[in-house]
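Encode chain A's predicted structure.
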Amino acid sequence: MHKPTVLGIIPARGGSKGIPRKNIQELGGKPLIAWTIEAAKGALCIDQIVVSTEDEEIAAIARALGAEVPFMRPLQLAADDTPGIDPIHHAIKELPGFDWALMLQPTSPFRTSSDIDGIFNYCQAHAAPSAVSVCEAAKHPYWMYQRDEMERLQPVIPGRPEIARRQDLPSVYALNGALYLGQTDWLLKHKGFVGQETIGYVMPGERSLDLDTVQDWEWAEYLLNKIKSPNLS
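Encoded structure for chain A:
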């Protein structure tokens, strides 16, 4: 039987609004991007790991960590407003012949090799063209409100049932940013990894941290320090 081939794509541009040079800032003693490269290298399903970047320093660090940088990303695909799927389409076209593309954002350092293999196997088992990782939402939309022109609270979901206890709420999930998987032919026809046929691969909250702000980074450092010092309260 034909073994499906998987291209692992790590998008890592040089610019970052929230945390300057975020992708190569040190987290736990190593560049942020190292966490993702190491997880990708440990995954059994990935056939080639490439870093998509326009930045020469990031490219050099990625190569030193064992990833490939077979092309440099065009500057027009590295702007603040560049849609996330565009660098993926670019990578697929630069490296044709793969059955699947797996996007691994460096901002999810606690994602593991088992998570990577898990979403691929899960997607294969369900015969779906794409899958994304999710975690249980920290805040439930049934308990969220908007304010109208009179500052009165209006439910975000009109007509939702009144539920007082958290354990009675239906489960809802949020994208955690860690894993985006899709068939390459399917992805080239779509504007993103999420479509009507996309399935959700559930990850635990402790591995779902997405580093977007300085506060996120500080929390990640705290968690790593707590692992090193289990008695820290």
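The beta strands are 6-11, 26-27, 30-31, 48-52, 100-103, 130-136, 145-147, 153-155, 173-183, 199-202.
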